[in-house]
Amino acid sequence: MSEIENITDNDLDTAEYIDLEDENGDTVTFELIGRIEVDGCSYCAVIPEEEDENADSDVYVILKEVNKNDEVYLSTIDDDKEYDRIAKEFFNVFEELDEEEE
C-alpha cells in the first residue's frame, strides 16, 4: 500500500469504499469499516473489497488521516506504539458493536 493516499473529506463521510494505490501502483478498493478519533487524530479501518475466501475476516488495515495543503491523505502508521494503541481502540469499538448485535 502506498504510504500516503489522497482522498477527499467527502469520501470518508459518505462512501463505504475507498480506492488506494498499492506498492506496485495498482489500485485496490477497500471497504471502510470504521473511523475513530484519538487524541485529535482520525484513523480509518479498512478491508479489501475482494477478500480472499481463505483470508481471516477479522483482519483489517488501520490508516491515519493526514492533512497536507488542505487535502486529506491516508497514511500508514509507522510508530509501533501509536499503531498498538490505535489497534486496541478499534478492537474495543468493534467488540462493543459485536456485543450490541447479540
UniProtKB/TrEMBL annotation:
Q: What name goes with this protein?
A: DUF1292 domain-containing protein
What the entry lists under Pfam families is as follows:
DUF1292
Which species does this protein come from?
[Eubacterium] siraeum DSM 15702
